[in-house]
Amino acid sequence: MYDILVIGSGFAGSVVADRLAREAGKKVLIIEKRDHIGGNCYDKKDEHGILIHQYGPHIFHTNIKEVYDYLSQYTEWYNYSHEVVAKVNGEYIPVPFNLNTLKIAYPDKAEELEKKLIEIYGQGKRVPILDLRENKDEDIQAIADYVYENIFLRYTMKQWGQKPEDIDPAVTGRVPVLVSDDNRYFQDTYQGMPLHGFTPLFEKMLDHENIDVKLSEDAKEHLEFKEDGIYLDGQLFKGEVIYTGALDELFDCKYGRLPYRTLTFDFEYMKEDSFQPKAVVNYTVDEDFTRITEYKKLTGQQAEGTTIMREYPSAYTGENGQIPYYAIINDDNMALYNKYVGLVGKYNNFHLLGRLAEYKYYNIDGIVDKALKLAKEIM
């Protein structure tokens, strides 16, 4: 009955399903473990009518016009540029650390230090904090130490349960020092939030006669991997299989569990109109949680009261209800991941796509771009 089998309905699975159904006329079956589509980008209104992101805040930004144009088929945009502040010793300062943060931290020397940063690194440059710490200049060292101690160190240890030096540079490089007075967290050309939410975007994307979606279904109950191919519900499946879930869990963690960080969310509704100055406030020197998100400021929604969410990271153990969010990338973990890749490598019709399946980090635009490319390859 089906030409394409997709496991998971987040951006990875939904984009592939959409393109193959609409552009290639393929009959697509999506199997989704959760009781809703949209993966971690799923949003809904809470009991107070506030639109929340159930699995933490997701913000769209990209420099890839093709990605922006593609998603714009399925949503209008709320013009939102993400700005984040950290609460440090009772004061709100812009993050990433930038020239405006510099003025707050060093009011008497800011002009001198700004000139030095621009001279050494260049206007508008994004400098990873670990690179900044290697500079021999005493003033640059002082800035690096301030950022490291007040913004980076404790936040990173809470988020990852490791010291920054033990984390993959691709991760630490995501939170640089910005040699600019631009307070936006991202400097991408296209930025915004789906005007009516992420879930309606997914609903439109998957609303096609060639796409069937089965919710609350575990793919492991339907798939078998045999010498002569992949079987779906006892029959050899000759179409393409796109898998977007955790690869180790597909094989019951037979070689051991891949390490991830998980998150616990604590939602709270307040009758006041506003709780904090920005949509996201990072807590970098105190508190057990890493950040608080106030969703009305993220979505532009007008509503009475406000809902906030505190975010607590911890180690992923696979316990019921836990969700693997962030892969802990190092040589040992990649070696373990590649053992699982070896179990599916011989199947030419089996494709790994997404954060979990590829054991790597993607922003929304990155995985949409990857999914569009995979769909073109299959077509």
Q: Give the number of DSSP strands.
A: 22
What CATH architecture of the largest domain do you see? 3-Layer(aba) Sandwich
Based on CA atoms alone, the radius of gyration comes out at 22 Å
Q: What oligomeric arrangement do these chains adopt? A: single chain
Q: Write out the strand line-up for the largest beta sheet, numbering strands in chain order.
A: 8-7-18-19-20-17-21
**What's the domain count?**
2
CATH superfamily of the largest domain: NAD(P)-binding Rossmann-like Domain
First-last Cα distance? 18 Å
Judged by helices, strands and strand pairing, the structural class is alpha+beta
The portion of residues assigned to helices is 25-40%
**Contiguous helical run count:** 13
Average pLDDT metric: 95
Unreliably modeled segments: none
Global geometry:
globular
* Proportion of residues in β-strands: 15-25%
Biggest sheet record:
7 strands, mixed
Jot down its keywords.
Rossmann fold; 379 residues; five-stranded parallel β-sheet; 22 strands; seven-stranded mixed β-sheet
The gist of it:
With 379 residues, the chain is an alpha+beta fold. Helices cover 31% and strands 24% of the residues.
